[in-house]
Specification:
With 540 residues, the chain is of the alpha+beta class. It folds into 3 domains: 215 residues, Spore Coat Polysaccharide Biosynthesis Protein SpsA, Chain A (Alpha-Beta Complex), CATH 3.90.550.10; 134 residues, no CATH class; 170 residues. Helix content is 33%, strand content 25%. The protein has 15 helices and 24 strands. Strands 1, 2, 3, 4, 5, 6, 7, 8 and 9 form a 9-stranded mixed sheet that branches. Helix 6 packs parallel to helix 7 and helix 8 packs across helix 11. The protein starts with 8 loop residues before the first strand and ends with a helix. One of its GO terms (molecular function) is hexosyltransferase activity. Pfam families: Glycos_transf_2 (PF00535). Keywords: Transferase. This is Glycosyltransferase family 2 protein.
């Protein structure tokens, strides 16, 4: 790469009706230091005070340039394109108005791009749940720290990173290949942009630094586009974006095109299926739309997908309408996947989805024990401090591995070190369909561990379970709570006086806990309930 300008970065910030947050985003870009020669904020005809906030910042920060659009574009692509057009630095970086760049992000990316003469540099991104501040890495394990990808087709799995914001781009590269975002009201525009980038076969440099913090505010009055799934139009938009991206990639590289189709089956399809909801009209529309799109997938893409995704695709193709056991399918699409009983067999004793939909579960016999979609149920045990655990066999596969013990693991939902309980021996169930045991449910011990870790007020914990087999293999999953377990309880505690405990079922069907130790915890428990109730009314 050659440039007559010294290496520098233009950060493009797009904003629409985000007066309360855009200042933090712009400030995080300006705080990158002199490596950022300019921050270009594009106001997409906001109707709130966004324009005034940006103009006020520009009055005191010479590096901030504000572009005011007179008409709202309806999407994110057009304002980003406006930002590229206004940029004067050799490199460009994108930032959304409700997110932030961590310190040093631009410098780390620029250094890698220059050192390796790479038109694209990429770094780590986290999804930060607010207000909990729980960070989840984006596409963990996809990139190898310090590597340089000379040809994207050699690493087709890179299509799984559809974000445009955790990457630095050479502006001359974008111009040379005519790479821009789709204009107008095009949802998931980053799918198409990243596909165009990969199709142009750039060298890609990877840095280990955290370069982007993606804020997730699920209870916000106006949620982000990717979280706004209240009607089927969001899924339709995602399908159209994927269809366009897959075509672009397939035309450039058969390997990239296939990887893009497989990614849809393994990731997008399962994510929306597990969040399908209970509205019959939405379910019917989603089912018809999905089957229509899957009909265009060749068998090579289906065969290349993992066993769980293959089975889902074939069940969807086999049923004209949502089946009676749709809830079972949504639980199977969850993380971790659980295939609930009953377990039907077809000709020759082959495992099938159900008697009504005898779709063969091909490849089940080849899955290692640790990857089996086993179902473990948790019910009320003897007294308030016990659980009755039941591990269901799965077409004889668990019996082959020989389950020996189970162990509970309590994971803070706000992030942090898990709390492990002791292993407990399993015994065969009386009906021969699995194994059972009684395990302690140490609620006061979990609450005390949370306090030692600095958690005050209400605590939220996920409950996971390890099933250990005869050869030492461990299957890690999450127990499915039975209804009788989901009752609030008040426990006397010498440390707190009283401990309020509420076991509940997550959206994915797993067991979780809310613990409120003492008066302060009880107060935060009540506040949390009111907050969730208001959020539910707003969503409705």
């Amino acid at each position: 790469m050659s440039s007559t300008q010294p290496p520098s970065v233009s950060v493009v910030v797009i904003a629409y009706n985000d007066a309360g947050l855009v200042g933090e985003a712009v400030t995080s870009a300006l705080a990158q230091g002199p490596v950022v020669a300019e921050v270009i904020a594009v106001n997409d005809a906001s109707a709130d005070g966004t324009a005034e906030v940006l103009d006020g910042l520009a009055a005191v920060h010479p590096r901030l340039k504000v572009v005011h659009r007179t008409e709202n574009s309806g999407g994110c692509g057009t304002p980003r394109n406006d930002g590229i057009a206004a940029a004067t630095s050799p490199y460009v970086l994108f930032l959304d108005s409700d997110d932030v760049l961590p310190p040093g992000a631009a410098e780390a990316l620029l250094r890698a791009a220059e050192e390796h003469r790479a038109p694209v540099a990429v770094g780590a991104c986290v999804r930060r749940e607010l207000p909990q501040h729980h960070d989840t890495p984006w596409v963990p394990g996809l990139y190898r720290h310090g590597e340089v990808v000379d040809r994207p087709a050699d690493r087709p799995e890179l299509v799984r990173d559809t974000l445009c914001v955790n990457k630095l781009y050479e502006r001359a590269f974008l111009d040379k290949h005519g790479i821009r975002f789709p204009d107008g009201r095009f949802t998931y525009e980053d799918f198409v942009f990243t596909a165009r980038v990969l199709a142009a076969a750039p060298r890609i440099a990877v840095v280990e630094d955290l370069v982007y913090v993606w804020h997730v505010r699920r209870s916000a009055a106006q949620v982000s586009i990717s979280l706004d799934r209240k009607d089927v139009s969001n899924w339709r938009s995602r399908i159209e974006a994927h269809r366009t991206a897959a075509r672009i990639l397939a035309e450039a590289s058969p390997e990239l095109g296939l990887a893009c189709r497989v990614k849809f089956l393994e990731y997008d399809l399962r994510m929306y299926l597990r969040e399908l909801g209970s509205d019959p009209g939405y379910r019917a529309d989603w089912w018809a739309l999905t089957r229509d799109y899957l009909a265009g997938f060749d068998e090579a893409a289906v065969e290349a997908a993992g066993a769980h995704a293959r089975w889902i695709v074939r069940v969807l193709r086999a049923a004209d309408a949502p089946p009676a056991d749709l809830e079972r399918l949504t639980r199977f699409a969850a993380e971790p996947p659980r295939l609930l009983p009953p377990y039907a067999t077809g000709p020759g004793g082959r495992p099938v989805w159900s008697d009504a939909l005898p779709v063969e579960l091909d490849g089940l016999e080849e899955l290692p024990a640790a990857a089996l979609p086993a179902t473990v149920e948790a019910g009320a045990g003897a007294g308030a401090a016990g659980l009755r655990i039941r591990v269901h066999d799965l077409y004889g596969r668990l019996a082959e591995a020989g389950p020996r013990t189970v162990r509970l693991r309590f994971v803070p939902r706000s992030g942090g070190e898990p709390l492990l309980d002791r292993p407990v021996d399993l015994r065969p169930a009386a009906d021969g369909s699995g194994w059972t045991c009684d395990v302690p449910f140490p609620l006061t011990a979990v609450a005390a561990a949370g306090r030692r870790q600095g958690r005050r007020g209400m605590q939220a914990w996920g409950v996971e379970i390890d099933v250990a087999f005869a050869d030492g293999t461990v299957l890690a999953t999450a127990p499915r709570p039975l209804d009788a377990l989901l009752r609030r309880r008040a426990l006397l505690s010498s440390r707190y006086g009283v401990l309020l405990a509420q076991p509940y079922r997550t959206a994915g069907g797993s067991l979780a806990l809310r613990l409120a130790p003492g008066a302060a915890g009880a107060l935060s428990f009540v506040r949390n309930r009111l907050h969730r109730a208001r959020a539910g009314r707003a969503a409705g």
